[in-house]
Amino acid sequence: MNHESLSYRIFKVGNASLLILIVVAMVFPYLNVLAYALNDPMDSQFGGLTFYPRELSFANFEMLLTNSAIIQSTLISVLRVVIGTAFALLIQYTCAYAFTLKGLQGKGIILIFLMIPMYFGGGLIPVYLLYSKMHLLNNFLVYILPVSFSLYNMVIIRSFLYTIPDSLAESARIDGANEFVIMLRIYVPLSMPILAVMALWTAVYHWNDWTTTLYFITDQKLNTLQYILMQILKEGERMASMFQEAIRAGITSGANTQPQVTPQAIRAANIILTTIPIVIVYPFLQKHFVKGITLGAVKE
Amino acid sequence: MHKEIIYNQSAKPTGSRFMRALRKNSFGYMLMLPSIVLTFVFAYVPMPGIIAAFKDYNIFLGLWNSPWVGLEHVREIFETPMLRQAIFNTLELSLLTILVGFPAPIILALMINEIKDGLFKRSVQTLSYLPHFLSWIAVVGLAYSFFDLYGPLNDLLLKLSGGEGERIMFLSKQELFLPFLLLLSVWKEVGWGTVVYLAAITSIDPSLYEAAKIDGANRWKQHLYITLPGLKMTTILLLIFTLGTLFNSNFELVYGMQNAFISYDVISTIVYSSGIQQGNYSMAAAVGFLQGLVALLLTVGANTISKKTTGISIW
C-alpha cells in the first residue's frame, strides 16, 4: 500500500517503538537478576550491572545447590508438580467425560453443585480449621487434594470432548467394547491436545504456589522452592541459616580464598533457580497456553 | 472398581429397561463421584465453619461448643481502626488496580493488532506474556532486585544526576508502596490480558472493515466503530468477573511487598496475621465472611446491571 498517509506512517513507527519499550520493560528486570546471579558476588556489591555478568562466577549457584533446605524443597516442589498434575488431570478428565455421556440424569444439578463454590466460600479460617481436623496440616496431601478439582478446567475439557465425533465410540460399542475401554482407548488418545494444555496450566500452578505452604505447613521438610524464596526475600533467618551451612561445608568463609557470597547475590540466584524451569520451557509452551484460554473463551 | 464395571457392562442385559439404563449410567456417575466428593469436602464442608465468626471460638471447646456471641465480631471490625483502615486500603487498591489494570490490556491488544503478522509481532506477544507465568513471589523478588539500593534503577538515576545524587531505598518508602503494588500488578498481567482481546479481535468479521473502507472510514474510525464495539461482549464479561474480586486484594503481592518500614494492610493480610498467626480465629473468620459476602453481592449486582442494560450475563 503506497497510499498510506504520512500521519499513519508516523503512527506505525511510534507504535512499534512503544511496543519495543514495553517489551524491554518486561524482560530487563529478569535479565538483570540473571546477570547478578551469574556475576562474581564481590564484584556485584558495587552495582552497575545491566543485562550481562561482568565477572562470570557460579559461586552463588554452588552455594544454593549444596544447601540442604534448597535440595529438600526442590524435591518437594517436583513431587508436588508431578503428583498434583497427574491427580488433577485424572479427576477433571473423568468428570468432564461423564458430562458428555448421553442420557445421564441430573447433570444440570451436579453442575450447579460444582459451580456454587466458585462464587461463595467460607474463607481461609473455616478451611484452616477443617484441615486441622482432617490432619491435613503439615501433610503433603494438602498440596494435592484441595485443588485437584477445577470447574473451569473441567468445562474446557468438556468443550473439547464435544468436538470429538460420536461415530467412533458408536462403532466401538457395536463391536462390544465397554464404556471404560471406549474412554481409555478412543477418547483419551484424541484428547491429548487439551490434556497437554491442562497439564501445563496445572503444573505451572503447582510450581508457583507458595501460600498453601504459608498457611498450612510449618514442617520445614515440606517447604517448597517458592516458599524458600519468600523466606529469603522476607525473613532474615532463612538467609542466615543458609550462610551458616555454607560456612560449615567450607563453601564460603570470610578468611580463605573461596569467593564470598552476599545476600543480594544469593537472592538473585534464588529467583533464577525458582523461575528457570518455567522460563526454559516457556517458549515451547506459550502457544498451548494461548490455545487453552481461547478455547475456553470462545466455547463458553 | 474397574473390574466391576467391565463385569457389569459385559454381563447379559437382565431386568427391566430402567435397570439397564441405570446400570449403563452408573459408569458416568462413578466418573463424576471423585469430583463431587472433593468439591463437597473441600468447598462445602468448610462453609458451616463460617459460624466461627459468630462465636467466641475456643480450640479446646471446638467449633460447636464455643459460646455464641452474635454480631459481636462484626461490630468489632468496624470499631477497630486498624481493620477499618485495611478495608479502606483493600477497596482503594482494588479500585485503582481495576482503573489502571483493566484498560491496559485492551490498549496493548489494539497496539499489537496494528503490527503486521510476523516475527516481530510474535516476539512482542511471547515476551509480554512471560511475567504471567512467574509466581507472584518471584515478581516480588524481581522488584526487590530492580529497586534495590544497588539495583539498576538506582544506578541509572545516579548516572543521570552525574554521580551527585543519593541512592534511594524505594521499597521502604510508605508513599511509594501503593504505586508499586499497582505497577507490579499491571507489569505481571498486562501482556497475558491481551490474549483474550486479540482472540476477540480476530473473530470480528473482516468484511465489516472492507465495507467501512469503501465508505471512506479511516483506520481510527474503523477502530472506533468496528473494533471497540466488537470487543464489547468480552470486555463486559471480564468486567463482571473483575468486580466480583473487588474485595479480594492480592494477598501474595501485598504480603510479599510488606516490610519493616511499611505500615500497610489489606483484609487478606489481616486474616492471615490475626487468624492463622495469632489464632484470633473468630475475628479473622468474621472478616473473611464479610469479604466473601460482599464479593458475592458484587458479582450478582454487576451481573444484574449488565443483564438489564446490555443483555450480557455470565449465567
Radius of gyration of CA atoms of chain A, rounded to a whole number: 25 Å
Average pLDDT score of chain A: 87
Along the chain, the helix and strand elements of chain B come as: HHHHHHHHHHHHHHHH
| Number of helices, counting only DSSP H or I runs of 4 residues or more of chain A | 15
Instruction: Give the class-level CATH name of the largest domain in chain B.
Output: Mainly Alpha
Report the CATH C-level class of the largest domain in chain A: Mainly Alpha
- What's the N-to-C terminus distance of chain A? 39 Å
Written description of the protein model:
Chain B: This is Putative aldouronate transport system permease protein. Chain B: Keywords: Cell membrane, Membrane, Transmembrane, Transmembrane helix, Transport. Chain B: Belongs to the binding-protein-dependent transport system permease family. Chain B: It is found in: Cell membrane. Chain B: Residues 87-302 form the ABC transmembrane type-1 domain. The complex is a heterodimer of chains A (300) and B (315). The relative contact order of chain A is 0.14. Helix content of chain A is 73%, strand content 0%. Chain A folds into 2 domains: 1-57; 59-299, Orthogonal Bundle (MetI-like fold). Chain A contains 15 helices and no strands. Chain A has helices at 6-38, 41-44, 59-65, 68-100, 107-119, 124-133, 141-144, 151-162, 167-174, 179-190, 192-208, 211-216, 225-234, 236-248, 263-299. Chain A has 300 residues and is mainly α. Chain B is an all-alpha fold. Chain B folds into 2 domains: 2-45, no CATH class; 61-309, MetI-like (MetI-like fold). Helix content of chain B is 70%, strand content 0%. Chain B has 16 helices and no strands. Chain B has helices at residues 2-10, 17-44, 62-65, 72-79, 81-101, 103-113, 119-129, 136-146, 152-160, 174-202, 206-214, 219-230, 232-244, 251-257, 267-277, 281-309. At the A-B interface, helix 1, helix 4, helix 5, helix 6 and helix 10 of A face helix 1, helix 2, helix 6, helix 7 and helix 8 of B.
